[in-house]
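Batch manifest, entry 17 of 40.
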Amino acid sequence: MKILAISDTHGYYRNYPDITPDLVLLLGDIKSVDIREIDKIYNCPKVGVLGNHDASDYFQDTNIIYAHQNLITVNGIKIAGFNGSVAYNKKRSLLYFEEEVYEFVKDLEPVDIFIAHSNPTTEETLKLDPAHQGFVAFNYYIETKQPKYFLHGHIHKSKAYKIENTNVISVYPFQIIDYE
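Output type: structure tokens
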């Protein structure tokens, strides 16, 4: 199965990959006009979460399945998701505290793919500003439930790494995944 993951385009990337994916995953900070374009271009299931710069209605009137704090099965793949990022100010609505993330993941059953806008915490992200340091609760979920993939955006860096047995991919701006 071919999966296309998209994150943090912020309206700057409009040359979407010319592929025919089986599933599209949207990881946030994608302008609403681009979300609608992605919805038209790709004729397959689309699942998404919102980023810290998004409005809560961005998926309204689209075919995108909203994964925030939900467990969804698409094409036999169990997917869970979480919006936004670490709370760094009081002005935006898609910011969360560590405890809020933990409340969602602590009893969440194992999934195949967990999608989030924000990242798990790593030694590398702890050197970043507080908004980009990630959620320790994601590490807890990865270590205890070991999803096959954990996909995130937010840090504007394309990188693949492992936490335990989980393939963690920081998506920027596009990533094609051959899911087996």
